[in-house]
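# step 3/5: fold
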Amino acid sequence: MIIAIDGPAGSGKSTVAKLVAKRLNYRYIDTGAMYRAVAWTAQKKGMGPADETAMAQIAGSLDIEFVPSADGQLVLVDGENAMAHLKNETVGRGAATVAAQKSVREILVAKQRQIGEAGNVVMDGRDIGTVVFPQADKKFFFIADADERGRRRYEELKSKNPNLDLKIIIEEVRQRDHEDRNRKISPLVMAEDALEVDTTGLSIEEVTNHVLKNINNL
């Protein structure tokens, strides 16, 4: 089975996808990590993420592995554990730029299909149910109030940066929503056959159980 979970930043899709994969003993694939890996690699090389030709070259040569771990997974980029780097705010902003580039998306979508084609996978992102695996067995589209998503992001990041401003984080979430929904290539939209899940005010366990119940009723 292929399970697709899409949604905007901070909707809880990655956390829930990890837990669903663990409960089902499936592989979990965070496609957003692939775009962040391109941005991080470019950053290390001193290259700006707006150079689409250069980003496509990086995406094409990138060796990225998703390795199961006690916390869900490790992401290895060219053999290096990149988990601590991929959550960096600057890398995240670069990934948003990279994700809007047609040639990069084509390369990474091909890699995502190759990873997931064997099945028994939970894959999350922003275009899994519409572009990567439109034939997925189950599709979910997570939503949540932008203010709550901003607070979740703030709680996730403040231990690393105590000077964060909650209002700025919320505004960044709203800006990312605008960019994702209005980009020309693979905009963030809900697949017609996806189940919408509003995670506002719900615990991770509640959302996970809801998703698993729907899967088990397939």
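# step 4/5: annotate
The CA atoms of residues 140 and 195 lie 5 Å apart.
# step 5/5: archive (pending)
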